[in-house]
Every structure is written in C-alpha cells, then in structure tokens.
Amino acid sequence: MDLKLGFLSVRQHTEHGFFGGYLLLNHLARPLEFHCTLPVKPTRAQTLLYGHTLNDFVCGEQVARALVQKAKVKPSVIFTDSHPVLALQQISSETVFYLKTDRGVGGQEASALIQPASKLPLASLQADPRLQMLEDELQRKDGAEKILSQLRDDFDMEEPFQRIIEALLEAHPIARAA
Fold first, then answer.
1. pLDDT, tens digit, for every residue of 116-145?
2. How many other CB atoms sit within 10 Å of the CB of residue 62?
3. Domains along the chain?
4. pTM score
C-alpha cells in the first residue's frame, strides 16, 4: 500500500494573519513530511478587492498552494479542516477534501478555524459523510472512495490536524489565540 495522505490546515490569528501547516502521512499515520508557513496578512487592497472571497484566495491560492508546492512527496489526496482551502482544488490538480468536524484541539488553539465566507457548492462522500468536496470536482469522487477504503477502520481523520496545530504552536508561539 503506497498511500500518501496530505493534511493541510490554515488558521487565522486576528493580529498576525493566516498560518498554514501541511503534514504528509503514510497509511500507518507516520509522518513523511511537514511544512508550515510564516504568517500571511492580506493587504488592505486585497481585502477590498477580494471581498467575501478573500479567505479562499489567501488560504487556498496563497498559503495552501505554497505548502503543497514546497512538499517533495506527492499526496494521493489532501484533507483539510479549513473550508477555504478547497479553493486550492480550482487552481491545481490535487484532490482536496474538507473534513467537517466539531472537535476542538484540546484547548490549544493555534487561533480560530476560518469560517466559510464564499458559497462553494459541496457534495459529501458516501464512505464518510464528514468529508466534502466541491461539486465541480465530483469526477474525483470514486478515486477518493477507493483511497478511503484502503485506510484501516481505526484511522482517525481528525488526529493529524491536532498534530499540525501543535506543530504550528511550536513553530510560531504568536499563533496562540489572542
């Protein structure tokens, strides 16, 4: 089994901007690579020009694209807990799924999860209804279902995001919620 799973999270700190972390794991949940970004703060002009699509632009097209391009390992699929990262799907060949979760990160927030502002139409996967993808990308759904079927039943889809947040806190102590 040669699965390479990407887990990408972007968090927003009101004062410092957006922080991103990208963890690549094998099918046993062992790390293959990790990357994180410096804070990205949109300019006033970007805020005005992008309007309600600003989070999609910053999270998906700037932070997520930089992290994925930096990685040496090519993922079979990318999972994100940050809804705006789905915008990456529109500018790259990567298959990206949003994991809808209510679980926090054990009191250690690297800042807030970014709430969706744009209205990207989503479809849920049958194998795991918490996983959603852009409706425009439904042709990738079968491949994703096949990948998910190869994972062990006890594979915790949320746990890698906890590792990312802890690593972001380690790399950027200013990321602690203000």
1. 445 666 667 666 777 777 777 666 777 777
2. 19
3. 4-175 (3.30.420)
4. 0.85
